[in-house]
Amino acid sequence: MKILLADDHAMFRDSLKALLEREGFEVVAEASDGREAIRLTRRLNPDLAIVDLGMPVLNGIGAAREIRKRCLNTKTILLTMFEEEAYVLGALQAGVRGYVLKAQAAADLVRAIQEVSHGSIYLSPGISRAVVDAFLNKKTNFKEDPLTERERQVLQLIAEGKSTKEVAQILGVSFKTAESHRMRIMGKLDLHNTAGLVRYAVRRGLVQA
Q1: Which end of the chain is more exposed for a tag (fewer CB within 10 A), N or C?
Q2: Buried b / exposed e across 56-67, counting CB within 10 Å, b at 16+?
Q3: H helices present in the chain, as ranges
């Protein structure tokens, strides 16, 4: 099985890579942010992408969503420190097949890979199964995010403290386009300042508090 690892902490990636290679898996690439993970996944078409939730530029949920759309043969497992409902449901909506808590990664990750590779959804012990069942049965009150994928990318960069000029440079668009995205985001969310945008981004798991 060919695996891509995406985490912005090189030492943590190294420990995961060593763990996986001991178990006979092949780590074909490593990425330090979500955009790089998408680019490498499209180029290498791995069987599995293991992505950290809290990556810069584009977080793990955003990366998973893009991987699902662009790389149909690649399944995704999310690594995270968070057990809250919003993060779990956001991951499931993005098409994540495994949700592994970092504190339990050494014990859980290999099992998660095995279950996901056989078509199952894997959740670390401690994640409420009731939350997942409610999502799968459409009985949750969790509201769909009204933003487009591009708007989520812009929002994450804003929440990371990037100026409109920096957002434009990172995404390769004009200042006017970046500003237009910002205004549409504020309009859709009925938020009127950067602090409100940051709070929303934290609640949705785009950035960590």
Answers
A1: C
A2: bbbbbbbbbbbb
A3: 10-22, 34-44, 60-70, 85-93, 105-117, 129-136, 149-159, 164-171, 175-189, 194-203
**Per the structure block, which two tokens stand in for 159?**
């929440």
Per the CB < 8 A criterion, the answer to whether 35 and 8 are in contact is no
Using DSSP's 3-state secondary structure scheme, residue 150 falls into helix
**Strand 48-52 versus strand 26-31 pairing type:** unpaired
pLDDT in tens, 21-42: 999 999 999 999 999 999 999 9
d(CA 209, CA 80): 14
Residues 6+ apart with CB under 8 A from 199: none
Burial of residue 176 (number of CB atoms within 10 Å: 0-12, 13-18, 19+): exposed
Q: What is the pLDDT of residues 130-159, one digit of tens each?
A: 666 666 666 555 566 788 888 988 999 999
Residue 35 buriedness (CB in 10 A; 0-12 / 13-18 / 19+): buried
Mean pLDDT of 164-186: 93
**What's the pTM?**
0.79
* Closest listed residue to residue 74, CA positions, set 124, 22, 125, 28: 28
CB count within 10 Å of CB 139 equals 9
**Domains, the chain:** 2-136 (3.40.50.2300), 149-203 (1.10.10.10)
